[in-house]
Structure prediction request, 85 residues.
Amino acid sequence: MGSKEKKSFTTELLEKELDRLLWWIRAVETKMSLVLLLSTTMLGALAVLTPTFSGWSIFPGITSAFATFFLVVFRQLNWINTVCQ
Prediction:
């Protein structure tokens, strides 16, 4: 393999890598607007609907903790899944 052929092959590989990276960035940009809107809305609704601290009982506390935990986990998993594709 000559010097020019090697350089051409390397350039081709780098261009393919750049195309792949730009593709997942476009995919993230299209999905993130909806995910960010939905998760922020759910977090805002949770903040508005929760009672004051003196009005809490054990059941609403546990369900709110689960809702917040899963909201954060699923948001992170969605981001990781989108990036790793």
Notes: The chain has a mean pLDDT of 76. The chain has one domain: 3-84. The CA atoms of residues 33 and 83 lie 15 Å apart. The helical segments are 3-49, 58-84.
